[in-house]
Amino acid sequence: MWKQIRIVVVSVAIIATGESIVTQADARHQPITMACSLPSESMLGEPLVLECTVENQSGDAVWVDFGWNRIGQFQLELQASGSALQRARPSATGLGGVSSSGKVEVLPGAHYVQRLLLNEWLEWSRPGMYALRVHFGGTISTSVGDVLEIVRDYALPFRLRPGVPGELSRVAESLLKKATLSSAAQDRIEAARSLSFMRDPAALPCLRRLALLRLWPGDAIAGIERVGTEEASRILTELSGSTDPDIASRAKASEARLKSRRK
Amino acid sequence: MSQVVSKANMRFMRPMILALVLVTMGLSAPATSHPAASQRDYTLLLYCDWNYSGCYGAWFYSEEVTVVASYGQLDIFPGGSWGYSGCPDCMRMVENYGPAPQPVEGGGGEACAIPTDFHQVGSGTDSGSGTLHFEYTWSSSTGNKADLSACEMGERVSGYTANPFPSPPFKAGLSPSDPTELSFEATRDAEDNHQTPGPFVTPFTGATVTASQIYRYRCPCNNNNAWVTLMGPHDIVRTVTENGSGGWKFVISKSGSSATINPLQ
After folding, report:
1. A119: domain range?
2. A21 and A43: one domain?
3. Residues within 8 A of A (CB atoms), B 67-86 only
4. Interface pTM (ipTM) of the complex?
5. What pTM value is reported for the model?
6. Distance (Å, rounded) from C-alpha B241 to C-alpha B251?
7. pLDDT at B68
8. Residue B184: which of A92, A189, A209 has the nearest Cβ?
9. Are residues A214 and A152 part of one domain?
């Protein structure tokens, strides 16, 4: 087992005059902190989610600028032994599109958790040890615009064990459940996206159901395409016959891309 | 494949107790009898899955609740969804049995919150590199935007007049998903960046690609969780033309605002 990484932060104490004094101390004793974490062990094929928590123990609200879609200010580096370094910075792809404003207000005494699905931005295909480095380039500021200092760099090692089909099926079922039944839209959206980036055949039955439910057909069909197996092709063929023209056209396009890749 | 899809608002469905199954949002608990709370809006999504010869469905609630469901002769699948053998009976099942899970805990019968007063904030701006930036905001029908946590806000862009984009002058292989649909939780404001991946390809030549965009929302407690258009459709127009100085320029425009790369290189 990996020991939890102790995170020491540089934090800010705001004194009565309104001036900022930067001190360095343990996160647990500071008024405004950010800490990022990752499960120390996961299964190959399982969604891997980085969680960064901003905690505001001060008496004033603060604003956190997470950038594009609330993840654009995170820079990621992934190193596996014997593999090339991967770098990624989440950003709008293709023609861009609408996204949530990156600025989040954290009220006094409250905390905010931002999640980032690593499978969407980084790729790994083998079990083993990995080292993830995270840099947060955004800002945390007071309501009057003073920028607060925080720890911006995190080293998060993790181990990937081989995927077990039965366990991965349960993971997929759990994500489908969240995607369809969670009361919070954000939880539903994140679960659907996590399911679509499993890149494992065990996810196919749930991705198919997600497509048929017509909730996020684009994510579901893209996820089926990412799996890319013969079974994935069969499901895309089935979905191509959907009475829903959007689902049918997306499935046909995905199927064509899969066939093209196989040539 | 043949498929029957139906949506039903079960708000007024009478429960028919053949089996009690307690379904919580992610937790199981002993099956006990609960007094029914006030009716809540919820949506049942249902489809007939011919491959497995059964129905499949899921419910959406406007808030986190505990429900006692009456399923009749239904099999319970993991995740609170259910199955029922015999596709032709899908609709009859809904009509006659009505799973109609009634919330017994949580909430308190709050009003269904939906986004209102959706509007653009200021003008679109040229944020460089041919990216056109917009910001949007809205309110909640309840007066508290946090009440929209169950709702999604998003866009649908469709009807590209050329797909893939002509190359030259656009980058080769530029083929967006049509439609492009994006969404996020409706509790926060939105920004929209219209960009065009480069590099542009020589020899430059005149070309225009137009797509149609709408902004929309959906809430489980409203309209059976179906999308509701808030703004649009409006055109997003990408054009490469001669710039009058012997070169070429790229202009992207929407709602009276534009961003430019001039000259193209």
Report:
1. 8-161
2. yes
3. 78-81
4. 0.85
5. 0.78
6. 8
7. 36
8. A189
9. no
